[in-house]
Design goal:
The protein has 183 residues and is an alpha+beta fold. Among the domains are: 34 residues, no CATH class; 93 residues, Nucleotidyltransferase, domain 5, CATH 3.30.420.80. Helices cover 20% and strands 20% of the residues. The chain has a four-stranded mixed sheet with strand order 7-6-5-8. A hairpin with a 2-residue loop joins β3 and β4.
Length: 183
């Protein structure tokens, strides 16, 4: 016999709300229909959320959910992750006291490497594992290249997967759905 379980939570106003009561009465299973998804970027993680395409005559660099930006001024370096709709999501800057205290200079090569490590750690803590990168480095031992390498070693992928587009009935190739596991 299944028993009825009610999960009750207290909201900020101490108002009670039921989240999922499952009962069995007369051979029927009744499941609560109230479900709230509190992750606004869930569809992006499933690769079915809207990804801005732009027009074919537009400049490249508009097709991303999260974009990596690196800004170097005369004294400090700032790296940030920008969402296409909501703006800056998270950032790291060598002018932050906790980062500046550990550096000899705030614009040298070690500053770029450590800034990449810090931003990668913050990305992983916030759940961002894929970021689109439009930053080009001129040499493989350049400061920017070392920053990007530190981001990759920190566990952040610098390319985002493409948006899933449903196959039309006449399409020969039918891509695998990202939410289905076929292993």
């Amino acid at each position: 016999m299944f028993k009825s379980y009610n999960f009750i939570c207290l909201l900020n106003t101490l108002k009670q709300c039921r989240f999922g009561s499952t009962t069995q009465s007369g051979g029927k299973n009744e499941v609560a229909t109230m479900l709230t998804n509190r992750n606004p970027r869930n569809l992006e993680r499933l690769r079915i959320g809207y990804k801005p395409d732009g027009y074919h005559v537009d400049a490249l660099g508009k097709r991303y959910w999260h974009k990596l930006q690196l800004t170097a001024s005369g004294k400090y370096v700032k790296a940030s992750i920008v969402h296409f709709q909501n703006g800056e999501v998270l950032s790291a800057n060598t002018s932050e006291w906790c980062i500046k205290k550990q550096l000899y200079r705030t614009i040298d090569t070690s500053a770029y490497i450590n800034l990449g490590r810090v931003l990668a750690q913050r990305c992983l803590q916030s759940g961002l594992i894929e970021v689109e990168c439009f930053i080009k480095s001129k040499k493989p031992d350049d400061k920017v290249a070392l920053f990007l390498q530190a981001m990759q070693e920190g566990g952040v992928s610098l390319t985002e997967p493409s948006q899933f587009k449903a196959a039309m009935p006449w399409d020969l190739d039918r891509p695998e759905k990202p939410w289905e596991v076929t292993e």
